[in-house]
Amino acid sequence: EAKMKLVAFTNAPRAYAIRSLEYLGIREYFADDHVFAVEDVLPACKPERAAFEQVLRVVGVVPERTVMFEDSMKNIRACRELGIHTVLIHEDKGDPTGEAKLLGDAALPIDPS
User: Fold this and answer.
1) Could you mention a single GO BP entry for this protein (predicted)?
2) Model-level pTM?
């Protein structure tokens, strides 16, 4: 039975990342060593290739078997260049257009209210 490794990766400080996961009620699904904050990848950070490569290396996964849920097109671009599958999280209730449609493997609209 294959298990998924859930990873949180943010350019925010670790304390903020942990509080956000707790607020969302999903903290229990992320092992401590699978929560990556800006201080874990410095001097690089998203969208720099080195930051993503460091997270992949530490977690022990390859880009082709990885999916990134992301709300930033610059991070979507960086993931795609590495071969990471992507899901664009966007606030637009319609279908994404242009670059977003071309780069993302999928798009998931959210209602910010």
Assistant:
1) DNA repair
2) 0.81
User: How is the chain classified by DSSP, letter by letter?
Assistant: ---PPP-EE-SS-HHHHHHHHHHHT-GGGS-GGGEE-HHHHTT--TTSHHHHHHHHHHHT--GGG-EEEES-HHHHHHHHHHT-EEEEEES-SS---HHHHHH-SEEEE----
Q: What are phi and psi of 101, to 5 degrees?
A: -70, -35
The Cα 94–Cα 42 span in angstroms is 36
**pLDDT beyond 60 at 10:** yes
- Residue 99: pLDDT band by 50, 70, 90 thresholds? low
